[in-house]
Amino acid sequence: MRSKKSLPKPQYYVVMCQDGLVFSGMQYGEPKWDANWSNAKPLELSSTEYLLRNKKYELIKQEEIL
């Protein structure tokens, strides 16, 4: 029998702006920011490209904030 190799778990990131607010989704085509970190929407790295066009944003690994 072949052993099944599990795929590596994708890394998820929380996007934070310079004001300390976290990305919580999109609203009317614009990023929505929230001061409540429990509302943060973790994203895979490939999904952060649009937000990271602005250099005022920072990525934080989801596992570092839990």
Fold and architecture overview:
- By secondary structure, this protein is mainly beta.
- It has a domain at 12-51.
- It has one helix and five strands.
- It has a three-stranded antiparallel beta sheet. It has a two-stranded antiparallel ribbon with strand order 2-3.
- Strand 2 and strand 3 form a beta hairpin.
- The relative contact order is 0.30.
- The model has no long low-confidence stretch (mean pLDDT 88).
In brief:
With 66 residues, the protein is mainly beta. The chain is 6% helix and 36% strand. The chain has a domain at 12-51.
Biggest β-sheet: count, sense, barrel?
3 strands, antiparallel
Q: Say what oligomer this is.
A: single chain
Beta fraction: 35-45%
| Low-confidence runs | none
> Alpha-carbon distance between the termini?
38 Å
What would the average pLDDT be, to the nearest integer?
Answer: 88
Order of helices and strands: EEEEEH
Report the radius of gyration as a whole number of Å. Answer: 15 Å
What's the number of extended β-strand segments?
Answer: 5
| Shape estimate | elongated
Can you count the helices? 1
Look at the helices and sheets and give the structural class. mainly beta
Order of the strands making up the biggest sheet: 4-1-5
Work out the helicity level: under 10%
